Amino acid sequence: MVAEKMDEEGSLRGGMLEWAYSGVDFSLAGNGGKDCVDFLGLKQRIIESILVCLFSCYLIKRGITKMTLPHKDEPQIGRRSYCGKQILLVIMCLTFGIELGFKFATKQMIYLLNPCHVVTVIQIFLLAAPPSRLVTAVFRLHLHMLTGAPIAILFPVVNTRLLPFETSTYFIQHILMMVIPLFLLRTGGVYTPEPVWDFSWASLSVGVLYIYHFIPLQYLAMISYVNLNNMLCPAISDPFYGQSAYGIECLLLAIRLSPFHSLEKCIHFS
Question: Is residue 78 over pLDDT 80?
Answer without folding.
Answer: no
